[in-house]
Amino acid sequence: MKSLSAAVFRMVFLVALAVVLICAAFMAWVLYDSIGIKEQRDLRNEVLLIEQSLSSVDNRASYISSLGNENLRVTWIEAEGTVLFDSRVANPTTMENHLDRPEVAAALADGSGQSSRYSNTLGEVTYYNTLRLDDGTVLRLSSSQNAVYTVLNTLVLPIILVLVAVAALAAVIAGLMSRRLVQPINNLDLDKPLENVVYSEITPLLQRISTQRANLESQVDEAAQRRREFTANVSHELKTPLTVISGYAELMKTGVAKPEDIKYFSELIYNEAGHMRELVEDILAISHLDESIANDDEPKELSEVNLVKLTQRIVQRLIPYAQQGEVRIEETFQRSDIFVRGPEGVLNEIIYNLIENAIRYNHSGGSVRVLVSEDAGVVRLKVSDTGIGIAPEYQDKVFERFYCVDRSRSRDTGGTGLGLAIVKHGVQYLGAHLKLESTPGVGTTITVEFSAYVPRPCL
Ligand code: ATP
Ligand code: MG
């Protein structure tokens, strides 16, 4: 992961270093220039000294001829530009006229002059300083410096020292700055995001964290509330059959029950126990689906299921129940093979609960229509009934766990209000869609839409 303080440090350090380099270059330029100034000053002092000495000298020409050394070149020029003497040239008559030299021209015009010339071939700078003597001749002193060498020689050490010092300083400042910049972020109190007084740039982030926290808290509250309700409902639903079972069992145990009632009582106990088993199975199924959805699990045991065959089997199982209620079941299948993908158990729960409800909440003489079709990659399972219907205000609620519109009717027929919750969870788990249309007194239609599974042709 990237470290913010390291990033800030790097940035500040690089900027500081760049500033230092620019400063160093500027310093080099200024110093280079000041070398020129110093050199000219030295030459001027020297030329003035010579002028002074000349006043007490008898033979000017021989005195000037004795001047000059390795570092200092002396040239004596006539007012017409002819070179009379040059300490570097044995025969000055071969030299060209010097009137065009700017320092000579300046001395002739103003009494003194100076200039510098850079020789590319030698890589040298030569400084010239001139003075017009009282006899109208011009005395010129010059000295040369290797430009690069001069700069390096005089400037390298200070530059290196300054660089090292400033780099160290930049590192310290960058460290301090990055720590200071990052500190408010490190000190954020994420438990109370909006109470932090920190950079305006991260306020949106804090607001987002705050909203998400609030959402999370309310979700946790809701989940806890749901769990409490669920536990209460489960124990309530289990208590009723248990009371019946223990009541009749007690009658039999204490011998209060007449022998001829024993069969009837055992049947009641058997039925209640069966009801309890169904309830426990439903609870397990729904908890299982709940967990898988919460964990975002990919549906396990995926297999292609022929929805037509599965529906036919379920209808067969429910025919006796429908006959009891005098309800007719009509099946319509677009084809004999319509495939979807899913764990068969989940599909079975969905279809079974929908058809069971359509029978249970029907009138005697009513009918249930089951339709399986496929259109443009969408498989539809449609269960319609001519039953009591569901009022609009209950149409969302019926999918909640343990919700029954008419508790006594559900209970009389063995229902606990878990069926549609299982359907909803199953549909969600499979990534399918659910639609309920219902008119009280007319009937209900519930449609589940799956994406079709196209079996790969065998090669
Ligand atoms: P369980 O299915 O757990 O045995 P149940 O049938 O009461 O019990 P659900 O299947 O979840 O529970 O249905 C919840 C409620 O929705 C039912 O009590 C009933 O009031 C209403 N309901 C469900 N299906 C229909 C339907 N086809 N027509 C009218 N009302 C229905
Ligand atoms: Mg049901």
Number of separate structural domains: 3
> How much strand?
15-25%
C-alpha end-to-end distance: 49 Å
Report mean pLDDT, rounded to a whole number: 88
Order of H and E elements: HHEEHEEEHHHEHEEHEEHHEE
Bound molecules: adenosine-5'-triphosphate, magnesium ion
The main β sheet shows up as: 5 strands, antiparallel
Global Rg: 53 Å
Assigned CATH class of the largest domain: Alpha Beta
Q: Looking across the biggest beta sheet, what order are the strands in? A: 2-1-5-4-3
Per CATH, which architecture of the largest domain? 2-Layer Sandwich
Poorly predicted spans:
none
The named CATH superfamily of the largest domain: Histidine kinase-like ATPase, C-terminal domain
Count helical runs.
10
Oligomer: single chain
List keywords for this structure.
459 residues, alpha+beta, Beta-Lactamase, Helix Hairpins, Heat Shock Protein 90, 3 domains, 5-stranded antiparallel beta sheet, 5-stranded mixed beta sheet, 10 helices, binds adenosine-5'-triphosphate, binds magnesium ion
